[in-house]
Specification:
Structural class of chain B: mainly beta
Number of domains of chain A: 1
Number of helices of chain B: 1
Distance between the termini of chain B: 39 Å
Strand order of the largest sheet of chain B: 2-1-7-4-5
Strand order of the largest sheet of chain A: 5-4-3-12-11-10-9-6
Shape of chain A: globular
Order of helices and strands of chain A: EEEHEHEHEEEHEHEHEHEHH
Oligomer: heterodimer
Radius of gyration of chain A: 21 Å
CATH architecture of chain A: Alpha-Beta Barrel
CATH topology of chain A: TIM Barrel
Shape of chain B: globular
Helix content of chain B: 10-25%
CATH class of chain A: Alpha Beta
Strand content of chain B: 35-45%
Largest sheet of chain B: 5 strands, mixed
Structural class of chain A: alpha/beta
Chain lengths: 260, 66
């Protein structure tokens, strides 16, 4: 059991709802993941469609926490309007803030992220900021009142895994009280294990499951991977050593000869 | 007068409330959220928010996201 904002959760897996081959495969993948938090978004409503309610009804039937995002926003004004619309529509004060600074890498604009986070916290939001692995930006987000910070492992949808281990390990060490979720760039279950072994509190991913040949099977694989990583972190990973150390006791070994 | 709904131009004879526009747009109450001139409008204010010439209205609904 762990705490994310004010929610008590079993799973450390936060999963996206996009890019699946079908709504049914999304539903099955979410169930196989064991995730209790799913990300959702907003789109322009088509005239006469009544709203995107088949999707929303499906998500509601899963009885999970919903984390709306501000995907596609480039300005503070867009983020503020999107966050307020999401709060009303999804009936939650949780918001994953994405404010993109560079189209090619989808790297967040961290200067604007800090500014908009301050405004959103003032308006009563629980901000889940999507940020880079920059330590000082993460510290400033925590200073503003973020209980959760979500650094990328590598660019969104790239599946490149944990590109800067030094930065991520440093962030974990320097922000021991902040809930740290790796958001974006996870490609394989072993990436997720590694993140949890480092002491990250959870992982948020979408493409790695949705774009797998078998999304349901991959969701299950990630579930095991996250559990393994967390168990390893809690058990305490041994310190690496430069030289070999025999694991079998040498005392009484047959044919053993004292060497010089 | 012309307004933009989800970036598409619409002609109106006179200023009109968001509540009426949503009804014309076929949006069910509770299934959408709205921003007027890039500012959020809560459900409670649909009837009193009036669209003027050149105004913009965003009408959004839930969708998949990562």
């Amino acid at each position: 059991m762990w705490t994310l904002a004010d929610a008590t959760l079993q799973s450390r897996f936060l999963i996206g709802t996009a890019l699946y081959p079908s709504p049914e495969s999304m539903r099955q993948a979410i169930q196989a993941s064991g995730s209790e938090v799913v990300t959702v978004s907003l789109r322009r409503q088509q005239a006469g469609s009544g709203g995107g309610n088949d999707f929303w009804e499906l998500i509601r039937s899963l009885n999970v926490h919903v984390l709306p995002n501000t995907a596609g926003c480039h300005t503070i004004k867009e983020v503020m309007a999107t966050a307020h619309m999401a709060r009303e529509l999804f009936d939650t004060n949780w918001i994953k803030v994405e404010i993109i600074g560079d189209e090619y890498t989808l790297q967040p604009d961290t200067a604007q992220l800090l500014a908009v986070t301050e405004s959103l916290i003032r308006d009563g939001f629980e901000v889940f900021p999507y940020t880079t692995d920059d330590l000082v930006v993460a510290q400033r987000l925590a200073d503003l009142g973020c209980r959760i910070v979500m650094p990328w492992a590598s660019p969104i949808g790239s599946g490149q895994g944990l590109l800067n281990l030094y930065a991520l390990e440093t962030m974990r060490a320097r922000l021991p009280q902040t809930t740290l979720i790796i958001d974006a760039g996870i490609g394989k279950p072993s990436d997720a294990t590694r993140a949890l072994e480092l002491g990250f509190d959870g992982v948020l991913l979408n493409s790695a499951v949705a774009l797998a040949r078998d999304p349901v099977g991959m969701a299950s694989a990630f579930r095991y991977a996250l559990n393994a990583g967390r168990a390893a972190y809690e058990a305490g990973v041994m310190q690496p050593r430069n030289m070999a150390q025999p694991s079998t006791p040498t005392l009484g070994t047959p044919f053993w000869v004292q060497s010089n | 007068m012309t307004i933009l709904i989800n970036d598409k131009p619409h002609e109106l004879d006179e200023p009109c409330s968001v509540a009426i526009l949503l009804e014309r747009h076929g949006a069910r109450a509770g299934s959408v959220a709205v921003a007027h001139n890039e500012q959020f409008v809560s459900r409670a204010n649909y009837a009193t928010t009036i669209m003027q010439d050149g105004d913009t209205l965003e009408i959004v609904a839930p969708m998949q996201g990562g």
